[in-house]
């Protein structure tokens, strides 16, 4: 069941080698370039340099299963590569495999027409531009997407967009050129056919970047999470994705693979945190003993290993099911991993922070930033409560 193809094994080995040679040695340089940049939202030189190396090595656009645009990997195979990339904050962008671009590229590849693909998908695949997904709104509980109130109104051969969005991740970077905006086209339609998704160039008149949002004090430059006002923004009617009222349909097709990506990257972060915890415990002494000699530390290390393995197996099972029986049948497993993976990683990272003491909450390790990012995942793809409710409904249905 869990056997990788020869191609996937080869890419796994090459990706690991690339990470060791270029990613880990340049992480501190990346951090300093972001901190010292005149424009915090401009592309980071070391990232742009490593992108060219990744392209030359054939480690580019590794996602997009079942698509002519991708690397020809299944969800199960790509999940293994996601874990490797997830060990570093900068790695996914280097390989053009970072959110929300991956989800947006999958959306345009699957639901866009040839004109939309030529205009937006091709430069995204080439890494020439970036993008954002503009769905969540500050004035409604966006975990229930039927609440989305942003207006998308048809006027002759154009659509007019009015609304306020936030957590439009990726919008702040200067290379972000296109947003996929979810809004309401027909408030009188059936509940799940009121919403649509439309392509909105970010340089359109009326698109106003209000502010970058912070995550536990981090602004995540140069990527950033924007609050955006769409004020009578006009785009051609041809920018509509798939058709009016198809927004929920697109969202369901987009979120399955995206959740697998997030979960496996999260497992990569957890693995690196456990590695850091073990190295620190072996190197540090307190009260006349190495930290690794304390029973409480050893139990934390053991529990972390158990939890990582459990989460990985559940995620790989979900990915395998997506490949073999489809996203709809795998929806319970997808919902489960969305709860399990970030919750597990938060516990492992928290234990690693504790072992590192003051260094764990400072900028001197990756742990504090990693914790903040992973914590957002318990909200970003839908809150835990929504996924738990879905799992419970599917479980209860078996016993009616």
Automatic annotation (TrEMBL):
SUPFAM superfamilies: Acyl-CoA dehydrogenase C-terminal domain-like, Acyl-CoA dehydrogenase NM domain-like
GO terms under biological process: fatty acid beta-oxidation using acyl-CoA dehydrogenase
GO cellular component, one term: cytoplasm
Ranges for domain Acyl-CoA dehydrogenase/oxidase N-terminal: 6-128
A Pfam family it matches: Acyl-CoA_dh_M
Keyword field: FAD, Flavoprotein, Oxidoreductase
Domain Acyl-CoA oxidase/dehydrogenase middle: 132-233
Record field: transmembrane: none
Domain of life: Bacteria
Cofactor(s) of this protein: FAD
Residue span, Acyl-CoA dehydrogenase/oxidase C-terminal domain: 245-393
Subunit structure of this chain's protein: Homodimer.
Family stated for the protein in its record: Belongs to the acyl-CoA dehydrogenase family.
UniProt protein name: Alkylation response protein AidB-like acyl-CoA dehydrogenase
